[in-house]
Design brief:
By secondary structure, the chain is mostly beta strands. Helices cover 0% and strands 50% of the residues.
Length: 166
């Protein structure tokens, strides 16, 4: 299958505690397009846009409550222009009616950066190290990028997930 990019530009992370509702436009999430769809994330990228020193602790983790209804705010596009449309396209979003909540036990990556021009890029070493998403329900069907409950980030970033639906 072809690789896809879910990307969001110029958003401000909002620090939230585990199992607490995310704030619209304060996170980024990717959810499977059907109850059986398998996605593999091979890259997570965050670039800082702040105009002053601002460290942020990011968490890439599974969500114990998944976003539902009006999943919007993040662009989702195939990297190869000849890619066929998916029958059940995954949802990439940072705004929803039912807010996602990060699981307290299924946190996969801790990525810390200075949002003052800093960059963090995680890539899977090989295919066996990719982050998997299965279906579209809690707790395996959604992966999110959010700020840990440490301080108040108040700094803009841009980010993307590179992933492959199977």
């Amino acid at each position: 299958m072809a690789k896809w990019s879910a990307n969001a530009d110029n958003w401000t992370p909002v620090a939230v505690a585990d199992t607490t509702n995310f704030t619209n436009a304060g996170y980024m999430a990717l959810q499977g397009g059907s109850s059986t769809q398998l996605l593999y994330v091979s890259e997570v990228y965050i670039g800082g846009l702040s105009t002053s020193q601002n460290p942020i602790d990011f968490v890439v983790g599974r969500d114990s409550t998944v976003g539902a209804t009006s999943l919007t705010g993040v662009r989702n596009a195939a990297l190869d222009p000849s890619t066929a449309a998916l029958a059940a396209p995954p949802s990439a979003f940072n705004s929803s009616t039912t807010k996602p909540q990060r699981s307290s036990t299924l946190q996969l990556l801790m990525l810390t950066m200075n949002a003052y021009g800093g960059v963090v890029r995680w890539t899977a070493l090989e295919t066996s190290h990719r982050l998997g998403i299965l279906g579209n329900t809690a707790s395996l069907g959604e992966l999110s990028l959010s700020s840990a409950n440490v301080g108040t980030p108040a700094a803009s970033v841009s980010s993307h997930f590179i992933y492959e639906p199977l």
